[in-house]
Recover the amino acids of this structure.
């Protein structure tokens, strides 16, 4: 579901992001966001683990779960919620869609962040 009041941000063409791949982008004024193409679809989450400073794009994906490469906390790509320690805080999720073959993030507008 795409929430109203969000701004689309073009990530890449879908053909460049096959199933099993991930791409990381940094929209202006925001932290890096990774878009995972799983066999269940596209999921976008903040790239940085909430435990320490690790890129989740470097982790291992199984189903709709990504395992952090540093201390192996697992996050649900659909909700951002960790399934166990050491991470205790969910990573932020983002709406993602495909329009005319382009992968779009739908980012919440944050005042002057553009
Ligand atoms: S940095 Fe991700 S679990 Fe520690």
């Amino acid at each position: 579901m795409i929430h109203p009041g969000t701004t689309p941000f073009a990530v890449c063409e879908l053909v460049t992001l096959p199933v099993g791949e991930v791409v990381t982008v940094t929209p202006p004024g925001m932290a890096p966001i990774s878009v995972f193409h799983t066999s269940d679809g596209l999921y976008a989450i903040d790239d940085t683990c909430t435990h320490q400073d690790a890129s989740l794009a470097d982790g291992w994906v199984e189903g709709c779960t990504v395992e952090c490469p540093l201390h192996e906390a697992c996050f649900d790509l659909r909700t951002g919620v960790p399934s166990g320690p050491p991470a205790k805080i969910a990573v932020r999720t983002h709406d993602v869609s495909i329009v005319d073959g382009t992968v779009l993030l739908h980012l919440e507008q944050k005042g002057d962040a553009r």
